[in-house]
# Entry
Amino acid sequence: MLTPIRRLLDRYEDYHQREPVMHWYAGLLGTVGFPLFYLLRFAKSTPVYDDLWLRLVAAGMCALLLLRTHWPERLRPYFFVYSYAALVFTLPFMFVFTSLKNGGGTVAVANTLMASFFVILMTDWRNMVAMLSMGFGAAVLAYWGTDPAATVPADYVARLPILLLVLVGGTFFKLALERATATKVRDAYAAVAGSIAHEMRHPLGQVQHSLDAVQRLLPAPGAWGASRLGPAELDGLYRHVAQGQQAIERGLQVISMTLDQVNDEKPVDDSNFAQLSAAEVVRKAVDDYGYEDPGQRDRVEVQILEDFRFRGDETAFLYVLFNLLKNALYFIPASPELRINITVGAHAVRVRDTGPGIAPERLPELFEPFRSLGKAGGTGLGLRYCRRVMRSFGGDIGCDSRLGEYTEFTMRFPTIPLAEQEEHLAAVLAQARAVLAGRRLLLVDDDSAQRLATRHKLRRMDLEVDEAGEGRRALEMLAYERYDLVLMDLRMPVLDGWQLAGHIRGGKVPLNTDVRLVAHSSEPEQAARLKARRAGLDGFVAKPSSEATLARALAGALSRPSSTSKRVLEGRRVLLADDNPLNRRAMAAFLVDAGAVVQEAEHGADVLSQLDAGEAIDVVLLDLHMPGLGGLQTVRRIRDSAKAWASVPVVALTAESGDAARKAARAAGMNAFLVKPVPPEILCSTLSRMLAGERTAPGVTDAEPQGESLLNAQRLESYRRLGLLDDLVTEYFPEIHRLLDALGTAIEQRALPKAQELLHSLLGLSGEAAAQALHQAVRRIYVSVREEQRWPATADWLAQLRTLASRSEAALREFAKAPAASGTGGTDIDVDAG
# Structure
């Protein structure tokens, strides 16, 4: 008996999970409508039956639907059961009961039809039949039980066939509408998927091209010892790897942009808006765009008539420029002589191409959604998104074109008052000067005019600046004088910047082995940044650069731990809060290995207590899901306090990577967002950025390697190095099996909230235990259960998790017996354990 009821409730919940606002509208209508129509009815005539008490009860029940978001946390799991009962009572039961009490009539029939229509709208056809049957049946029983002179009104009964016809017809029409809507949704998804697939061919092709080029440069198997790569080959390898990385980044940007385009109602996030140089962003867009061949880049010309500053998001504006470049370059086959000119000046950026042009009558519809002019395979969403971005900046975008001659897009920006620009620049320079003042900097560049210009840009930083005209002279100075920073050109005669960095990091100048090195070069930025990191440089700033850009780069390099330091959190005190002691143990080990002093807490109240104890905490790591005071409530208490620690950096830890969780964390006051299991390098780098003064760090989505490998070998090697490998066998996996057994009990008891809680714990623990395949399988089930609030459709899902856990444990035992992997990393492994 309970199984059919449970299925009905599952279908009802699934129906309203898609559109939860329906309950809110129903609650508002009932709360206002029931009392209002009672007053209107009495203003006209007195009914046979006074149903005031029924209407007040119904209005109260509807008010509870209206206040859903204010329900206590412990009662929210029962909302759908309550709403089901409320709808049965306020619609079929109440209207039929009062109609019978009032002796039927035309109004009674109309009321019954209206109640039935509302039920049709509020649920699926199965629950519609169940709700109407329960409500009508209960109303008839209540009528016969409370009225000693109960009689069935003849006119009421005579119209029952009409009611049945309306119900059947309304149901069929609703099913037809839902199918038509589903078809439209499928078509829209197909268009979006097709657009992503179409756009991803280009970056994936670039990745393949880069890998092919790397393969050609590598020595043949068996010739490792005889082969030596020369400078040109090494430079080519770096260039091709950088191009591959850039193509991957571009592909991810395409996906993000396409998804943002589809969600037209989603506002552009203005929390990261900053004052940007139009010239710098345009140059970056033109240099970073993923051209299909070098000839395409030669077709693009940039003219800076007058630089200006605008307030916006750099990434969003890059998307706009990429989209315009992509649209223009698309027409090269049709216009072999096509040229693109990008002009910056007069608070506008103009992108003009000599392509086929657009007919005047088509221009008005250019920015409408799902309109693609002259392109095959497009969704017509790109220009709509461009307009949305520009308007979020306070500007706009327009188009002028002449068929067969040109097309010109003009992006206009609002003027930032000069006083505001100067105030912004002063704030940026003041922040940089606070880090740089009194420090010693060695400026290395073979171009004396460039040295003079750079020194001029640094005049307000209160730096002590020395100069060297070439690399050998810089080495001599570094051997006898202690410096905090070296700002160096990369292309210099005799001893270039790369060689100079190698000598410094190689110990040739012991006095300055850990000096911060910043490259200042006009080399292609993507490849230069990659080589700079590998060469041990701490920063890169492209030439030409503004005063603010250069100051930020130097201050950032000095604020972060040196690239030569492995213990990036040396001496820092970290408060780690997680209700699972095994999760805390793994994360604390990584933090201690990075030099941190770790304090642990089991829940939010313990965090507040330790913060209040007086010991200065540098950063707090908060699990979002803890008993009692959870992570979100804890960070709100921290931010709302008037204590000295109210502004302490707080980083969210969670197994949930959804957009809603990230937004909730940011709204509560979190400075960064990390998804468990967190790779040690990402954990430490995020905290080091926080401690270096970056009060908001980018959120990390799922950083765990993807694939079907049982174990994450790289994480296991970290555990081996820290002496935690045996703990995984003796403590972590037994706890995983215990959670799976408890999950089986919850399934038997049909306790969905308890199962969801256990899945959350299992998700976090499997990730920390490096059980990669198990973690991914649990995540798929957990996300489905959490979002749909129903049991998984697959019957043997728990058995599959048990099998994965056993295989992972056996693979771990084999891994523990094997010698440590050579090198720094390791790959994911799948030991055949069963």
Residues 713-817 form a domain with the Four Helix Bundle (Hemerythrin (Met), subunit A) fold (CATH 1.20.120). Confidence is low (pLDDT under 50) at residues 220-224, 376-380, 698-707, 821-834. The two ends are 40 Å apart (CA to CA).
